[in-house]
Amino acid sequence: MTDQEGKTVNIPLYAPDIDLSLEEDNDVRPYETYNVEMRLSGYEVLEIQNVQIFAEESSYLPLHPTPTRRQVFPGRSVSNIVDHHLLTNYGGNNQGQTPANLGRILGQVTIPTYITVHLGRPQNAAENVTVPFLYYLKNVACSEIYPTWPYEALKANIWAQASLALNRIYTEWYPSQGYDFDITNSTAFDQAFVKDRNIFDSVAVVVNEVFNQYIQKANYQEPYYAEYCDGKIASCPGMKQWGTLSLANQGYTAIEILRYYYGDSILIRESNNIQDIQASYPGVLRIGSSGQEVREMQEFLNAIAINYPAIPVIFPVDGIFNESTEAAVRVFQRQFNLTVDGIVGKATWYKISYIYAAVRKLAELTSIGRIEDLYSGQYPGTPLQEGDRGVEVQLLQYYLSAIAVFYPQIPNVSIDGRFGPELFKAVLNFQRSFGLIEDGIVGRETWNRIYALYETLSDKIVPDESIPEYPGMTLQQGSSGENVRRIQTALNNISAQYPSIPLLVEDGIFGTATTTAVRAFQRQFGLTVDGIVGVLTWNKIFEVSALIDTGEEAGEEMPPYPGTLLRNGSRGNAVRLMQERLKSISIYYPVIPDITADGIFGPATQAAVIAFQQMMGITADGIIGQQTWELINTVYNELFY
């Protein structure tokens, strides 16, 4: 009989010796089973068969009776609890079959109040049950592991089970495929959940303690897809359930057990964002939209572009839906057979999230993950080197391409997310210029130095809209018209700063002189030297020209060039000024020797000038002409103002 709270008194029952549940090689059932029948006026008779009872372990059985439609002789509802998954070797998750479809992405990790479980394989017709998330975790833990195990083993397993479930929710794995549930109870796809099973007290205590905690890999945002198996019959690359018992008995803590199986980068995170699961769709996004949802969408499209290079990369990722974002959306829609309108409606949003999860493998054990605050400039956590691919490489290329505008010795690079020979060369040149180890690998020190320099230049970087739209065809010798005239004007503007580029008559005719100027520009900025203006050369010409205009309009303090060359034997205030500035620059660039600012241009000053010119990729003659004068002042201002 139940009390006012609907609970019965504790009923002691027989169960086998506890040691049977602590022995991996034992195939004897380590628990006893009982049938429980519930009768309540106005409700169907409810029978739960094969309730599992362990020695020295209390448990409770939550029941959900169904109102009867009969006045006399009520109907009967029967549930059967299958044998424990550890006993039958059907434990673990995702054994032997990875779903082909992946999910979309929620904006943040949410601990749901309820979760909907499909009682079967995803494609099979079966009942859906919606239960509190707390109960779900308790049920899974009671179905997957024995409650008699040590506390640390229980905790490690429950962390893995919670993390896997939250990964399914975070990636919206099943809703993105059109299913009306969050997870299944099939261990071929997810993890065991047994309807109407009893819950063991020792498990409930741990779940109540850690239900809002989950595993996370360092630098990544999503709950870790913690694959596991029983380790007795089934094998998997993740955690072994029986192995957790052995490690706990050896004195391992729960986090040490997880790191034993998943690696030292494993962290435990906690979320207080506990709420009903919300759909991720933010509403229609189009030109003029802005905010976090736009920023996430830009981030997702950039990641997708690694695998689908026809999609143009969006930089900067700033949360502003502009023309470049619309162009990327249109290409994505065309790629995936959606209505090509450049508007992110519901179908496009879900498809972007779905493909993003696929290319980033968020829902697999080998997750490459979503890096937290990647666009803030934080180091990705692992070195980048030739052969790597990903948004981290993409961002590195963006930083270097911006720096290359100001430092011609660093060749321009394409932003395609692939670390190839072109990027390797740019990294080597950067390392050489800034006194770093020249290995072409972007470790923490190189990454941080690249980002720090990019940050000092970022306010000078011209937004895309200042670059005229590429006309869609190459311009070369024999071309003519307004676009040729615009190129000539921009090259003349650049020539004032880079005398190696000859001045042109702005006549709109692409002749030999214009070809020579284009080739000189390409050589100066690390482009293919062919004298032809394709999209890369077009964008670079107008980008550099606009930057020069921006520098002039900003009113930066630039001491006027004295009008005469400064060389070995020169004396005076102009020499002293250059010595002072080279001395200051050498603090940041050790390749430039320290010199005395005495106003006398001797061999030491000449050596410092040559080192600076080599660093900047200009003629290294040890003479300060107008180009060297302006570059010394520009670098000095970038470092100290």
Structure, described:
A 3-stranded mixed sheet has the order 1-2-4, with no helix packed on it. A 3-stranded mixed sheet has the order 7-6-8. The termini are far apart. Helix 2 crosses helix 3 and helix 3 crosses helix 4. The chain is 38% helix and 9% strand. Mean pLDDT is 84; it is low at 95-103 and 552-556. By secondary structure, it is mainly alpha-helical. It has 6 domains: 18-85, no CATH class; 87-275, no CATH class; 292-360, Muramoyl-pentapeptide Carboxypeptidase, domain 1, CATH 1.10.101; 383-460, Muramoyl-pentapeptide Carboxypeptidase, domain 1 (Orthogonal Bundle); 464-553, PGBD-like superfamily/PGBD (Muramoyl-pentapeptide Carboxypeptidase, domain 1), CATH 1.10.101.10; 573-640, no CATH class.
How would you sum up the major sheet? 3 strands, mixed
Runs in which pLDDT lies below 50 for 5 or more consecutive residues are 95-103, 552-556
Over the alpha carbons, how many angstroms does the gyration radius reach? Answer: 33 Å
Strand content: 5-15%
Number of strands: 14
Number of domains: 6
Mean pLDDT: 84
Shape: elongated
Give helix % range.
25-40%
Total helical segments: 18
- The largest beta-sheet arranges its strands as 1-2-4
Structural class: mainly alpha
N- and C-termini, Cα separation: 81 Å
Pfam families: PG_binding_1
Domain Peptidoglycan binding-like: 290-351, 390-449, 480-541, 571-631
InterPro entries: LD-transpeptidase_YkuD-like (IPR052905), Peptidoglycan-bd-like (IPR002477), PGBD-like_sf (IPR036365), PGBDSf (IPR036366)
Protein name: Peptidoglycan-binding protein
